[in-house]
Structure formats: C-alpha cells, structure tokens
Prior knowledge:
Layout: E1 2-10, E2 16-25, E3 30-34, H1 41-48, E4 56-61, E5 64-65, H2 74-78, E6 81-84, H3 96-106, H4 111-124, H5 140-152, E7 158-162, H6 170-185, E8 189-193, H7 197-200, E9 206-211, E10 214-218
Parallel strand pairs: 3-8, 3-9, 6-7, 7-8
Antiparallel strand pairs: 1-2, 1-4, 4-5, 9-10
Helix pairs in contact: 3-4, 3-5, 4-5
Amino acid sequence: xxxxxxxxxxxxxxxxxxxxxxxxxxxxxxxFLTGPxxxxxxxxxxxxxxxxxxxxxxxxxxxxxxxxxxxxxLPGIRRRIGIVFQDFRLLDHLTLYENVALPLRVRGYExxxxxxxxxxxxxxVGLAERVDAFPPILSGGExxxxxxxxxxxxxxxxxxxxxxxxxxxxxxxxxxxxxxVELNRTGTSVVIATHDLDxxxxxxxxxxxxxxxxxxxxx
Length: 219
C-alpha cells in the first residue's frame, strides 16, 4: 500500500532528521512506530500522510509515485489515509456529531446520506451518549475517541495515530488499543506512533524503531 525506498528528510541546512528509510506498509497490517523524543516519528507520519515531501528517495502510495501526484490528486489519496493528531484538532464550536461529520459535509454530501453512519461510528467508539456534546466539556479520552471517529468516517485503508494514548491512564489506553485492533481486523492498516512500551507489549505487532533518523524493524 505504501512503500519507502531510501527516503531521507532534512529541514533547511540542518542535519538529516530521517535517513535511508526503506520499508513498506502492507494491507491489513498493524505496526507500532516508536523511538526516543526527537527521533523523527512525527516527520515520518507526515511523510506517510503526504503532508511532507522527502528530501530524497522515493515514496509509492497505492501504486503511484508520490512525486507524480498533482495538487488535484492529493485530496483523493489522503481520503484513503486517516490520521489522528496528538492534539485532537476538534472544533470547539461544533458538537461531536458535527466534528465527525465534517469531512463529509465539506465534500458536499447530504446529511441524510451519512447521519446514520456518523451516529453508528460514535457508538462504536463508546460516545453514544455524547453525540450532542461540545469538545470543551469532554475528557481527554473522549476527545481522543472522537478524533478517531472523525479519522474513520471516510473508511480509510490506512490509519495513522500520533501518540493516541499519550495523556491517558493505562485502562483507557488499553481500551483505545482494542479499538485499533478491531479496526485492523476489518482490513485497515494501522500505524501507531508511541513511546509507551507497556502499550506495545499488549499485542504482538511489528515495531518500527527510529533512532537518530534511522529505522530498525522488529517483527
């Protein structure tokens, strides 16, 4: 689905943030992306989401060379890749229902065609009673689950999550991990960036470990 070949990233005239990355994300796969702070995890997620261009190397996404994609191609490709940001990025003036529905609304879909899907998705992430709530009154865990629901509303083939359990207690972190595992079982490839070793020990999954810009992969 996604392949990196000798990919590197450098910001300005500074040193390489990422170097010589060669790996792939296979269909229906599950992997953790880990490494110390400053190792380049967020930069790698941006490369995967096509919001950052590599300084060198080749990225292939769904069989297409990322360098060949035009600005009109990118939205369609990105709809196949969901992303959950570390800071949630929910809009405080919209209800949870409206936040989750927003990607479909901005594309001009009629609410009658997606209302049931949005409500069912909020139920799936355990927010059935919070459909009409606004983000400022929600807990961190509720915001995180809402952000996951919004990332999933377009039924992506790949889901990227940046430190999704970083500020949660262990019990809620395990609950969120189970949601990701269930999603993976439906066929979505999952990439979770995390430094939480206890979380990674909960399941058997590939580990992509960044250190000083280079990657080692453990099955």
